[in-house]
Amino acid sequence: MGIKLDCPTCGKRMTFDMATTSVMCHHCGYTPSTGMDERAEQIRAKGTRPNITLTNPSAIMPRAAALFYTAHDHLFNDDKAAAINSLQDAIDLQPDFDDAHIWLAKLSDDPAVKRDHLSSILAVDPSHGEAMQMMMVLNGRLTAEQAQKGLNSQGPVIKRIDEAVKTTIKNTRCPKCNGSLTTNEHTGNTECGFCGYILPVNGKANPNGDLLFAALLERRAEPIRWVIGERLLHCNQCGAERAIPASELSTRCPFCGSNQVIEKDALDSFEQPDGIIPFKVSREEASRLIKEQLKGMTERIKGWFDNNKVASATLNGYYLPFWMFDATVEVSRTRILTEPSNRGYGYTRVMTPQPTYTQTKNSEIFADVEVCGAVSPAKELTRQLGDYHTSELLDYSPNLLAKYPAQLYTQDFDSAALEARSYISAAMRYKHGKRDAGETEKVTINVFSNIQQMSFRLILAPVWIAHLVEQDKDQRTALVNGQTGLVVLGKSEKPQRSRSR
Q1: Domain identity same for 21 and 135
Q2: What distance in Å separates the CA atoms of residue 282 and residue 485, rounded to the nearest whole number?
Q3: Nearest Cα to 261, choosing from 224, 231, 302?
Q4: Cα–Cα distance between 494 and 489 in angstroms, integer?
Q5: What is the reported pTM?
Q6: What angle do CA 288, 406, 496 make, to 5 degrees?
Q7: SS3 for 155?
Q8: Could you give the CA distance from residue 209 to residue 214 in angstroms, rounded to a whole number?
Q9: Which of 419, 326, 399 minimizes the C-alpha distance to 170?
Q10: The total number of structural domains that make up the chain
């Protein structure tokens, strides 16, 4: 006796044979096992769903997490619209769900929607690497290929080049008569020394710097980082060619006297400054300030043991490169109180320290943390130049270097950032690491600084540099902050003797 069933392929009746326990359509040959095998083969061909995990599962609500995993089930089944809906439901339930924001930015075809979701992440966590890279691609700062290389790269290969690299320069000449430009010390204007034409005053520089994290990601995507020894200059006025050290940004041609400012080199090995602070302290005032410092009590006491009177001196104005960092810092202060307590073991009393922990957190903002990017003068001197007031920072232009030469940075921003971080950490330890009034040595204070966001700019700052030769032939360097007049005196040193061959 057989049971009749409808065939899903041809619609005709199939027969179930009790003896063989099989169902088959005698019209088209279909059997249920054939359909099951085909479906199984489709599933095997598609593979298994990728294992997607949450970045911080403990911080995600269970319902939001379930919606996130459901979205990936939809993606595995090629249902993009359903996946987007599930991810949006997860964000509606938990707005700070970073993983859901990232995937919505990946799935969306609308740049505005992508930017909105990435901004939601970066507003809370500026150091979110994937979100920052996606935003940089969206803004055109990185290509998709560069971003992918940056994820897998250990950073650029450092290559040193020994030969002089060709450069593009700008001559600071008067646009009216082609005469040499200079800077008027009394007015601060850039003007022509021949016809008196005054160039328009530069506007204020952009107060917003570049995000350090974004710049580091961009640097990581670069294949090569060049270290330059010399650059080759071709004078646009007289045609002379010569090599200059890589530390010089501007110089004067020794043949025709024209002022030359480097704009770029053939390897794009450096960045132009973002701004410049003009000189406010004149040469005469800088000389007077140094003399007053040398007459101070400390210098007079040194004179009792050493003939430190100045026999000769040179004084010149320079623009030195400074990296200026702004930072938002979270400071964790842990107070540990160690008190002895007694526990009895028979006739013996054991003193066991019982630490008590108290932790507080504070937010601090640092602005204009300065790190000199030049090797010379020495760091121990430039660190003492005091603060420069960036309220007077002008937008950079080569014409502003018409009178005073400028140095180019040899310490790059990534290395300078480490120095700035060290300064910030030390400042926070000093501020928050003190014991409260009445506390004894039993209280230990630990301070940890977590820099949440950092931005930076490259500026040129005015410095007067004096080389002093004392009567006993010792030499020393003196610096004057060209904006505030602060004087820094270096140590006296014996002149280096040239080695005889």
Answers
A1: no
A2: 9
A3: 231
A4: 16
A5: 0.80
A6: 70
A7: coil
A8: 11
A9: 399
A10: 3
Which range marks the domain in which residue 19 is found? 2-46
Q: Compute the distance between CA of residue 308 and CA of residue 495 in angstroms, rounded to an integer.
A: 14
Examine the domain organization and report whether 458 and 348 are in the same domain.
Answer: yes
CB–CB of 191/199 below 8 Å? yes
* Chain center to CA of 501: 47
Length reported for the chain: 501
| Interatomic CA distance for residues 407 and 420, integer angstroms | 20
Give the mean pLDDT of 139-161: 83
Q: How far is C-alpha 462 from the chain's CA centre? A: 24
pLDDT tens digits, one per residue of 462-499: 999 999 988 888 889 999 999 999 999 998 888 776 55
Burial class of residue 156, CB neighbours in 10 A (0-12, 13-18, 19+): middle
Residue 2 confidence (pLDDT): 44
Q: Say what the alpha-carbon torsion angle 405, 386, 390, 467 is, to the nearest 10 degrees.
A: -10
Q: Which long-range contacts (CB under 8 A, 24 or more apart) does 180-185 make?
A: 180/257, 180/258, 180/259, 180/402, 181/259, 181/399, 181/402, 181/403, 182/402, 182/403, 183/278, 183/279, 183/400, 183/402, 183/403, 183/404, 185/279, 185/282, 185/283
How many CB atoms are closer than 10 A to CB 496? 7
- Beta-carbon neighbour count of residue 83 at 10 Å? 22
User: Are residue 17 and residue 121 in the same domain, yes or no?
Assistant: no
Sheet holding 2-6: strands in order across? 2-6, 13-17, 22-24
